[in-house]
Each structure stands twice: as C-alpha cells, then as structure tokens.
Structures
1.
Amino acid sequence: MKLIFATQNQHKRDEVQALLGNSIQILSLADLQFHQELPETHDTLEENALEKAVFISNKFSMDCFSEDTGLEIAALNGAPGVYSARYAGEGKNPEDNIQLVFQQMNEKENRSAQFRTVVCLLLKNEPHFFEGMVAGTITKEQTGVSGFGYDPIFIPEGYDRTFAAMTKEEKNEISHRRRAIDKMSAFLKKQAD
Ligand code: ITT
C-alpha cells in the first residue's frame, strides 16, 4: 500500500518511517518535489490535521495521512498546544519557543504536561482520526541533543531523562506519535484483512 505522508517536518517523517517499517510505502512531500508549507489555519489539532491531509490529497489525487502535534502544559491552560510550532512567533524557531515556555513556567509549581498527536488518514476522501498522548513533566533546563522541538524540556512519565536524552528508538517506543501511528496501522491492517 502506498500513502503520502503530508508533512514538511523531516523529524516527523523519520520517526514515522521508522515506526511503519516496510508495512506501508510512504511517499514524502520531498519525493514529490513539493516544498511549500502546509496550511494550518484552525484552532484544533484535529482540524489542522484534516486541513493538511485534504490539501495534499487534492493536490496529488492520492490517499494520504498527516498529523498535527502539540505540547499541552497544564499550568499554561494547555498552551502552547495547537500553536506549538509558532509559539514564539512565525519563525517556527524551537529555541525561542523553549525560552518562552521557560519564561512562562518560571513561577509555576505544577510542571505537568502532555504531548498529543492527532493523525488524519484520508482514504478515498474519507477522514479517519487516531490520537496518541504521552504524559510527563517540563524540566527547568534543557538536556539532550536528540529529537526535535520541545524534546529537550520534556521528561515522559516513568523516566528520568528528556526525550532529547533518549535514543531515537527509545523515544519511538513510547511517544505520542507512536501511539497514534500504531492505531492507524491497526486500522489499515483490519481494512486489508
Ligand atoms: P507539518 O505541519 O508540516 O507536519 P510542523 O513542524 O509545522 O510540520 P506541527 O504543526 O504539528 O508540525 O507543529 C508542532 C510543533 O510541535 C513542531 O514544530 C515541534 O516544534 C513540536 N513538536 C511536534 N512533535 C514533537 C515531538 O515529538 N517532540 C518535540 N516537539 C514536537
């Protein structure tokens, strides 16, 4: 089976490719020579995931999936959430985003947070949604150099290291993205049976 993964984020692409292995042939937007940023104009992960999938599916007339992910911090009422990529401004700069989170968390006792991923799979123009979450805490300083985005400041529950201090394999074992993609894989397998 062949599906486009509608994302311009190479880290997401690498993680998802490793998760799906050879079970599904993923076409990336780079494979299709498509380098334009994808539209994300809504206030929920679900709507943005759908928007990206519909945009690419229409463009290439092929089944595809997309995902939208947010870091939801309890003490910030769920922020940065759906605005995670551009939290500190349009430049999508991960370092600036992290510094803004630190600034806003400065006086906060409650460091609880979760990553939430919503995958939207568009099969014959019919959307199917799959959600994955991982709970954890926000650190007071950055550690680790692996991963991307907010990984250096997020410690998943039951661990003592940030995602960025784990290997790619360790993160992929337990991540929000893994949980959502596993649900999509199970759905696709059932369709094929
Ligand atoms: P596409 O829309 O092209 O898929 P994007 O980077 O804009 O790529 P999102 O809109 O989902 O993706 O942005 C979510 C942001 O949240 C992303 O840019 C990262 O900064 C952060 N993020 C997403 N997944 C993450 C992860 O697994 N670990 C750490 N940060 C993550």
2.
Amino acid sequence: MGDDMRCETSEELKAFVMEAKQYTKNGKVADYIPALGKENPDDLSIAVHYPDGSCVSAGEIDKKFTLQSISKVISLALVLMDRGSEYVFQRVGMEPTGDPFNSIAKLETMAPAKPLNPMINAGALVVTSMIKGKSVEERFQRLLTFIQELAGDETVQYCEEVARSEFETAHLNRALCYFLKQHRIIEGDVEELLDLYTKQCSIEMNCLDLAKIGLVFAMDGVDPLNARQIMPKDIARICKTFMVTCGMYNASGEFAIKVGIPAKSGVSGGIMGAVPGTVGIGIFGPALDEKGNSIAGIKLLELLSQKYGLSMF
Ligand code: GLN
C-alpha cells in the first residue's frame, strides 16, 4: 500500500491500544539480534484491513519494522508454489513442537532429523533452502517481489543493518543448518542459506502493509483490491493452518484459546493476523513476553477478539 492510500484513525482502536499498552512494561525488546535492541519498548500500533479496501488504525502506523518470523509463512507459501506440497513436506513436518522457536533439541531425538514444522527456525531454514533461483540474489528477489505483490506495495525492501546484524550473530541458526546438512535435509552452502534467510527476516514494512498481507491470507489467497489470485486457495489454507497450530511458537495453544485467529509473530514485535473471510491485521509492539511474542500485541488481539467475536472456534 503506497503513501496515497491512508488508513483512518479509529477512536475505538485507539482506546484498545491505550488499554493494551499498559502491558508493554512487562515485556522486553529482543536484543539477541543486536540491531533490534534499539526499538522503543513502549510502541504499539495496529492496522485492520477490510476486503473492500478500507482500513482503520491506531498508533504510529508509519513506523517500519522487520518481519522476522512472520516471513516464514510467506516463504512457505512461495516454496509450496515452487515445489508442491509433497516435496516440501518430505523435508519439513506438520506438527507443533512445544519448544522455543530456536530449539535444536527435537532435531536430535527425532528420526529422520527433519524439523517438526516450518514455523520454527530449523523448519524455516529448510523452507528457505527450497526457494527456487540460480543465486542468492535471484532467490531473494523472487521472495521480495512476492511480498511486494501481497502487500500491494512495491517500495517494500529489506533493512541491511538488521540483516547484517543477524548474519554476524546467527550462531544458533548456523548450528541448526550444519546439523540439517549433516543429515541431508538441506543441500548447498550454509553461509549462502544464512545470507538469504537473514535478508528474508529483515524485510521491513509498516503495519498497514502487514495487515494487507494478512488480508490476502484471510481471503484464501485472493487480493480483494484487484480480485487477483496471488496464491492458490489450498496454499493459503495450509499457511493459515500452520498459523493456528504453530504461529505463536510454543504459546500457540493458549493463543488459540484466548484469541482464536490464525496469526504469526516475529521477534521484532510484529504480529500478522488473518481472520478467515473477514479482515487482515497488522500489529507492531516490540516489547516481547518470555516466549518471544509481542506482549501488548497479544493483549490487543485478545481485546479485539472478545469485543468482535473474532475467534473461529
Ligand atoms: N530472524 C529470527 C531468527 O532466526 C527470526 C526468529 C523470530 O522472529 N522468532 O532468530
């Protein structure tokens, strides 16, 4: 969504943001990726995008943030289109883990060592390794173009500073990659894969764009603004199902009970929501809870879900 289309500020949403904001003081900005540590923990903003093209918002909605783990849903959609589900799910599973998103533990105890799902880091690294293209540049460009199409905003780019910061400190993700390579789940050069993965995680946008992407998933892969099918319905369905079962890491069960919408979070503090057939939601609140989810963002979604009966269950 370019600068020409603006969201209307909603007094009702503003009141929900004020209420949820109190929780930011109980959270902490992620700093294991040093460049993320600079965010203001008090920030909280939201945009809600409707299929008719209208949009309501509250907070500093112009502020950009990096997608981090939210990008995992989008790379999965691209790879399912590139390779088909049989190929993809031979290499990554469909089950929630109950472990933190960056855990290595289950890889060693499961046989074969294929990661349990595409939303944990190990699984997302496998997914990214399957993006088609002749070089890192070509593969990244394909993903970026896909994200620009989903957001309807061709100005979306990645943040070089965050990508570099993560690449230099991604020791655990490197370990996951080498483990996966040893077990032949991934092929090719690990440093190139990490280069691609850290750029993918550093793609940045504001919550209006994020709400628009959520809307495309909510509308079964169709962009309601131009009636274009951007991804097959079945792939949007698979992605939304993973958002329900694994989208909020090892807090997905509690989130399903308290909020009940397909959602995906990232350690930048972003949350993308896709309420089936209804709306797309983009939230940015960088103070995180102990599981790595936006603490006030979750509260905000809880308030909205209760007020508008958004739970799908
Ligand atoms: N880039 C981050 C990582 O790999 C993404 C994790 C997340 O957002 N939870 O550690």
